[in-house]
Specification:
With 230 residues, the chain is of the alpha/beta class. The protein is 30% helix and 19% strand. It has a single domain, classed as TIM Barrel (Alpha-Beta Barrel), CATH 3.20.20.
Length: 230
Amino acid sequence: MTLIGPSMMCADMGRLLKDMESLNRGGVDYYHFDIMDGTFVPNFAMSPDMLRTLRPYTDRPFDIHLMVEEPERYIELFVEAGADWISVHAETKVHLQRALQMIRDSGLKAGVALNPSTPLNCLEYVLDVTDYVCLMTVNPGFAGQKFIPSTYRKISDLKKMIKRSGEDVRIQVDGNISFETIPGVLDRGADLLVCGTSCLFKPNTDLELAALELRGFLEAKPAQAAVREG
């Protein structure tokens, strides 16, 4: 089943709770929170206090994307704040296997996030402690960027790697996930969508209706992408 995860960085910070209530009614599956430290990416975003504030208002999982250096330092903080899933970037100053095991030992799902140009071979010895891989389809840090076409092939290659490993690992895609790109990423094996300004958070859009429209689009089994990269 394909799961819809609104990227809360794209929500209206002045009415964050109202946006979440609308998305709840629209039937989204989880919430994606980008945590940025201004070092790993040139931007700052979100905090554990925000999670604590929102946590009582939904039973959907909170997916925490740590775009920070030395993510091991923050895992416990976000566990306590109400996280359900946490992904860490393989490119950061991180002992990757240890960080993933820390997340799992806390009872959460553990994810590895990869920038568009990062090769998949860094996953070879950690798939056994990984629940999902977040493939960035834009360079991380800012909303509204263009989808990088070569990441279609990367999704296909990751799907093959997971199949060979025999592990139960899901594929998440993050970056310009739109009605145009969704058919292609699903066809290649993605099943966790991070949805931002390209399909949910559009100007003057009712978020409940936008989420329902996206769900209907997914259930209609959209045709395969017209342009293939692999």
